[in-house]
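**User:**
My hope is that you can spare some time for a protein that puzzles me. This is the protein in question:
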Amino acid sequence: MTALLRYQAALLLRSHRWLPPLMLYAVLLTIGVRTGEPVLDSFGLAAGLLLPVAAWLVRVCVTNEPDAARDCAAAAARPWRVHLAGVLTGLGASLVLAAAGTAVVALISDPHSSGGRVAVPLGPAAGAGFTAAVSCALLGTAVGALCNRPLLRSAARSVPATVLAVFLVLLPGGSPANAAVTELVSASRSGEVSWPLLPLAVAAVFAAGAAAVACALSSRR
């Protein structure tokens, strides 16, 4: 797996297909997160914005290889390993953006509650923000794994399915992504930092299940 991950990472970097999702995340952060806003609110927004970007990065990674190159890699290392390496590479790129987004928000945001009356400890707040961002990255990875090859091979189907799935995963009140963001926003009102650990655990289960389904189907096709 180590060699496959290095191969997928090199393929991603050299393809430059990571630039559009990176630019999308940067633009969304620029529009949504403003200097001097309450830090926990900003962390919640930055985490939610990462979900569609993570789904896009997974799509890039699992569709990056020409069919002939993918067949050669699959013959040498089994199809499910090749596909898993692509999914994990997309997740890894999303986690890099999660860390970068957390750092940017910590630098430009106001470490106080939404009313400005309670000081918010920046270290624990950054940890909570990164936890929420990882939760959204995991759910975006799950969406990307289920809405692309081998389940949906045509871009005419996979792209609309990905957009719809992002909304279904992010907006409903019971979703882990929504719960993680809401927990930070609620904490911002009181100024007491609360880490969204339960949404993180649920998101990890969803991501693992989605990757397992995609890898199992990749071995059959």
In short: The chain has a mean pLDDT of 91. The radius of gyration is 18 Å. The longest helix spans residues 79-108. The CA atoms of residues 84 and 215 lie 6 Å apart.
